[in-house]
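Structure ticket #2291
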Amino acid sequence: MNANAIDIAENLILTGYLREAKKILSTILLDEPDNDRAVCYMGIILTETGENDKAIKTLDYYIHKHKDNPEAWEALGCAWFKKGDLLRAEEYLHRAECLASESPSILRNIGVLYGIQNKIEESHKYIMRSYDLNPYDYRTLYALSYSHLNQKQYGDAKSVIEEALYLDFPEDIRKELQLIFIKIQINWIQ
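Resolution: structure written out below.
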């Protein structure tokens, strides 16, 4: 396999076609089990698809050789987050942040983690930094709407949801935001 196939897999990951990217990467790894880019992307896909134990093993293997890849640290942090180990998740997400302090994705994930830990102010700070860097990411808008709700900033949450509903993103999240929007309006009316 050549680098072109990995580039195709990377583009599929970025556009959400994880199953297709996983097939390409699996084929590459059958021929080249030590292909570092393929190993890293496979770890990211395994995290995104909830195969967290496999993701952790894959990303640990990759990071053992390449300690300077913020995406790998972020994916590893997210895998631990999904497994419920919030301390490890925080450690790895902050390692990712040290390597890429202006990554909207990393900042958003730290903000979400802090929100789960009930560190509301820190959560909001990170999510706002993520939003400032990429105001068109539906995941950040989704997290920001919840951050505003956690702080009882209903007007701000309503504005973010209005903004988000103009973007293209998964239907299940769109429906959830629409329901939250309706609840906010009902609470304001009463």
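Closing remark: Residues 55 and 104 are 22 Å apart (CA to CA).
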